[in-house]
Amino acid sequence: MIFVSLVYICAVMIKRFFPITAFFLLCIPITLWGQDYEVTFLGIPVVRVHIQQIPDDNPTLVTYEYTARTNPFFSAIYKVNNRYRVTMDTSMSRIVSYEKKISQKNFQQSFHTQYKPEKTIYSTGDERISETGRHTMLSLLLALTRVNTPREFSIPLEIEGAYYSALMIPREKNSNILEWEILLLPDGGSSVLATTDLFTSRLADPEAQRFIRVDISSGHIVAARFTLSPYTLTARILGDS
């Protein structure tokens, strides 16, 4: 009975929180090789994330593609097989495009965004006036790997048409590891999607806590933590592949 209850709790928490933590993990920049990460809940591994940089024909751009899949045990409860891709300039200060292909149990979704100098174009047909320096969560996390000094700062953020001010707060610096807390403050706009994946629906929850740990010597994110009381999901790097 205890085991059955634990499985049920894990299934519910995966449904609510796994995509958020997995998304954090999927934002780790690498250089034409792969890295694997493991997401755990209550100390139990639930998903494996693989990130790979994709060669780009334009030498001024970098593209990252990654997958997140539940392990065989949890796939029987709540199967996740998600893919994301983001293209930015090599300084990681300007995003060019973002796309996702979501497969979470009974939910399927494909979505694409192009960021042009004068406007942002969504695959839904919506358009918004562009703002210089506005990031998505994915591009923001990529940009964080370029910050070596623990200082508080804010960056304009966009989540599928909804605008936020992302406040970056350094919480800990230990040797080469720098931990950031990310606070999201509403700043106008609204989602261009009537429904969205679980990650997006919970990412900006005002009660959520989001932490990223960066190895500033390698420029990699090595861990992520997402908390929506009373539950926490954690993710850690497994190594290079």
Structure commentary:
This protein is α+β, with helices and mostly antiparallel strands. The protein has one domain (2-240). The protein contains 4 helices and 14 strands. The chain has helices at 2-25, 72-78, 137-144, 198-203, and strands spanning 34-41, 44-54, 61-70, 81-89, 95-104, 107-115, 119-122, 127-129, 153-159, 162-174, 177-189, 209-215, 220-228, 231-240. A 14-stranded antiparallel beta sheet has the order 8-7-6-5-4-3-2-1-14-13-12-11-10-9. Strand 2 and strand 3 form a beta hairpin. The N and C termini lie far apart (39 Å).
In short:
It contains 4 helices and 14 strands.
Considering the chains and any ligands shown, give keywords for the structure:
241 residues, alpha+beta, 14-stranded antiparallel sheet, 51% strand, globular, disordered N terminus
Annotate the secondary structure layout:
Blueprint: H1 2-25, E1 34-41, E2 44-54, E3 61-70, H2 72-78, E4 81-89, E5 95-104, E6 107-115, E7 119-122, E8 127-129, H3 137-144, E9 153-159, E10 162-174, E11 177-189, H4 198-203, E12 209-215, E13 220-228, E14 231-240
Antiparallel strand pairs: 1-2, 1-14, 2-3, 3-4, 4-5, 5-6, 6-7, 7-8, 9-10, 10-11, 11-12, 12-13, 13-14
